[in-house]
Write a structure and sequence with these properties.
By secondary structure, the chain is of the alpha+beta class. The chain is built from 22 helices and 29 strands. The chain is about 30% helix and about 20% strand. The protein starts with 7 loop residues before the first helix and ends in a 22-residue tail after the last helix.
């Protein structure tokens, strides 16, 4: 098995397919390769008849209500909603309203919860890393990952008695979590308790405003409703542990320090680290702040949450408290109000953080990372973040609430609206960064596979539609700048790669066209046209025989170089050529527009004539190599009509033959989709566990006609991918099915993903592929 500190892709790219190299392959890759190379390749066993209850299908169309998970059903422990701003680290809001995980300290973790677990794939037990699905098999549990002490409690005085309850699962008869995004609603209730408490919490999120959506902070709006016939006195207290230098702090080198801080519209506590040595440059060096907004409160710089009682609600006599790093220093702030019968009392808290030093792993990969996080350029510390938030709180929060209201104010089913938007939370985790230079940068999944990889990120539509300025800048700064070769090829991992990927090249051209469409004027296109044209020309040149079907062996998203003419790659290039022609026409570059359009015309003619087997689109082998090398050949591949899917996304209309496209989608439904992947992955072993027994999903690539050696003659590690369910690809197919009128199938496929990520099973907010919060799922 590979060592944890070696990137699988780099390691395997350096290996040859000799016997010695084969012995070095990871277990999962070796088993997949052996299985596919043998003449006894397992029989296709996905049933054509899905046997789905008609009433259940009908129910998918119901408007319904937002997904709400309950304590009484044991559905809260895995929930982790990204609750901070864009590119500000991973902070999870848990099912009971407390923050957990706290991946804000710039450590070099791969995955939100790095670990290796054992999984029996139906053939044998094998180790699974975080990048291979460990958190799908064994999701992180909130109670095990409370890195910092944080919480709220309420004190109620009613009928002469005082009751104190923390806002945590254990203290209430029922806790419900309404799983929306960008904020969630948590409700706490108990029998014979005179109040109900409603918490709305999350990060500030304002579409088209990438600046104010990137604040390193979480807001908590807490409403206490008096259900009784008498007035009550209610106090709400919030607390937060000092996390400055949480990892590196040593008792002999410094002290944690909490200081009362006041500003316009807020008061609270700023948490710092008092250096006795130089620790300011460490990744976890920074500050935190907890504050009450628009109200006066009772501040305590040294609070003990383990003894929440009347004394804990009293004011501290100290403006400053200190503690050695090995101890816990916790600050709190409380607000009190008398609530009349049937009335309510609302308080607004904010927790902010400021850990602006990027870790060394990323600094080695990206020159732009040296100066640190973008928010470190805007604010000097967490108190300054709080000052900005407090001064703009009403507009920041109201616009966040307005967006969620706008998104959910629809006749579409709530569950569908949730699932197709929820993955944008990926950009509010440690999967993405924005550096002080302004550059946006991302992994494929948290800590795994660097460089905002073109052949993965080109699947993601959400960021380009919600925060288009970030995508425009990335196209201009990276794809048409840092990563652009003299011949027009685009390095698919920016400066961390030395070659283009053909699907990444085509997908990036389509994204360039999308970014132009999402611009207010023509300036983006005009400014970058010379380099755009160069990139399009490079892509067109990869069609060596001039039939409109690219045939140059190049890297693709399945980490391989395939020979021949491959429907999904050829189709993607046709769509990109059409986008190139549209841009050329707008630039009045008539000769280049003609060249693009001729390519599209030939491709649209030859796709159905040469790459359609009568039922679905295939991979035509190279005339010389034949099937010697890895390929999908006459199998049924999930992305076979991806080019048409992208064309619809970019408003490019119909490409090749409609009926053959529909036939291909029906074949994917017939041969690749199953309501239970269990029987398939037990016989087709070697894939990674992104869907397990009992889960529905669409398998990446199947051999419906039971051909021997369906994927070619070579033994290669990438074969394991074909047996997996990867949600980013599934979302692409579902969107295409919806566009083509296959509404039942689109809803069923999307619901299968939604149900795989039900809170009773795992974190609803974390769709996993190669590590957590995988970009393709956006």
């Amino acid at each position: 098995m590979k060592k944890k500190n070696i990137d699988r892709r780099i390691f395997l790219q350096q290996c040859t397919l000799t016997t010695a190299a084969f012995i070095s392959l990871p277990v999962w890759a070796k088993e997949a390769a052996v299985s596919a190379a043998g003449s006894d390749y397992p029989l296709h066993n996905i049933p054509a008849n899905k046997n789905i209850d008609a009433q259940w299908i009908k129910s998918l169309y119901n408007r319904g209500a937002a997904s709400t998970y309950l304590k009484s059903k044991n559905e809260l422990k895995y929930i982790g909603m990204p609750a901070g701003g864009l590119h500000s680290g991973t902070v999870y809001l848990g099912g009971d309203g407390r923050l957990w995980l706290w991946g804000i300290f710039n450590d070099e973790r791969e995955g939100v919860d790095p670990k290796t677990v054992l999984w029996n794939d139906g053939n044998k037990e094998r180790p699974i890393l975080s990048r291979d699905g460990a958190n799908y098999i064994e999701p992180a549990i909130a109670s095990n990952k409370r890195v910092l002490e944080q919480g709220f409690a309420v004190k109620i005085t009613h009928h002469g008695s005082t009751i104190i309850k923390e806002l945590k699962e254990e203290d209430w008869d029922e806790v419900s979590f309404e799983a929306t995004y960008p904020f969630a609603t948590v409700t706490y209730s108990s029998k014979n308790f005179p109040v109900k408490i409603i918490l709305k919490a999350g990060g500030f999120f304002i579409p088209l405003n990438a600046e104010d959506s990137a604040l390193p902070a979480t807001f908590f709006s807490i409403t206490i409703e008096n259900k009784s016939a008498q007035k009550i006195e209610a106090t709400i207290i919030g607390w937060q542990e000092n996390g400055a230098n949480k990892i590196s702090g040593k008792d002999e080198e410094g002290l944690k320090q909490n200081t009362i801080v006041q500003g316009n519209n807020y008061e609270g506590i700023v948490s710092t680290y008092k250096n006795l040595t130089d620790a300011a440059s460490l990744p976890d060096a920074g500050t935190m702040c907890i504050a009450l907004i628009n109200k006066k409160g009772t501040v305590n710089t040294s609070f003990n949450p383990y003894a929440v009682g009347n004394t804990a609600f009293s004011e501290s006599n100290k403006n400053v408290s200190e503690q050695i790093p090995s101890g816990k220093l916790i600050g709190s702030i409380a607000a009190t109000e008398t609530i009349q019968p049937a009335k309510s009392f609302r308080t607004d808290f904010v927790i902010s953080w400021h850990f602006a030093n990027v870790n060394n792993k990323i600094k080695k990969l990206v020159a732009d990372a040296q100066a640190g996080h973008y928010y470190g350029k805007r604010f000097k510390d967490a108190a300054e973040v709080m000052t900005y938030i407090a001064g703009n709180f009403n507009s920041l929060q109201s616009n966040t609430f307005l967006w969620q209201q706008t998104w959910t104010d629809s006749t579409l089913p709530h569950w569908l609206l949730e699932r197709i938007f929820i993955n944008i939370g990926t950009i509010s985790t440690a999967n993405t960064y924005r550096f002080q230079t302004g550059r946006f940068w991302g992994w494929e999944g948290v800590g795994a596979c660097e460089g905002t990889c073109t052949h993965v990120w080109q699947y993601a539509q959400a960021l380009g539609r919600i925060f288009p300025s970030l995508e425009r800048d990335t196209r201009e700064r990276v794809d048409l700048g840092i990563a652009l070769l003299d011949d027009g090829g685009i390095l698919f991992r920016g400066e961390d790669e030395k070659r283009p990927a053909i699907d990444g090249q085509a997908g990036t051209i389509l994204r360039i066209y999308r970014e132009h469409q999402m611009s207010a004027d023509n300036s983006f296109l005009q400014k970058n046209w010379t380099n755009i044209k160069k990139a399009v020309r490079f892509m067109l040149a990869q069609d060596k025989n001039g039939d409109g079907l690219t045939d140059t062996p190049m890297e693709n998203t399945l980490d391989a170089v395939w020979e021949g003419e491959i429907a999904w790659i050829a189709g993607l290039c046709i769509a990109a050529a059409k986008a190139g022609g549209q841009m050329a026409a707008e630039m009045h570059d008539d000769s280049f527009a003609k060249a693009c359009n001729e390519y599209v015309e030939k491709g649209n003619k030859n796709m159905p004539e040469k790459l359609f087997n009568g039922e679905y689109f295939i991979h035509r082998p190279d005339a010389v190599q034949g099937r010697k090398k890895l390929g999908s050949y006459n199998t049924c591949h999930i992305d076979q009509v991806y080019g048409q899917s992208w064309a619809f996304q970019a408003g490019l209309g119909r490409l090749w033959d409609k009926e053959k496209t529909l036939s291909a989608l029906r074949a994917l439904w017939k041969y690749n989709f199953t309501m239970d992947v269990g029987p398939y992955i037990k016989t087709h072993t070697g894939g990674r566990p992104y869907a397990l027994e009992g889960d529905g999903g669409m398998v990446m690539n199947t051999n419906p006609h039971n051909e021997p050696k369906p994927y070619g003659e070579n033994v290669t590690w990438q074969l394991g991918y074909f047996h997996e369910c990867m949600s980013g690809f599934e979302h692409q197919v579902a969107a295409h099915m919806m566009a083509e009128g296959m509404t039942d199938e689109a809803l069923i496929l999307t619901r299968a993903i939604h149900d795989r990520y039900h809170a009773a099973k795992r974190n609803p907010y974390n769709e996993i592929e190669c590590s957590d919060h995988y970009a393709r799922a956006m």
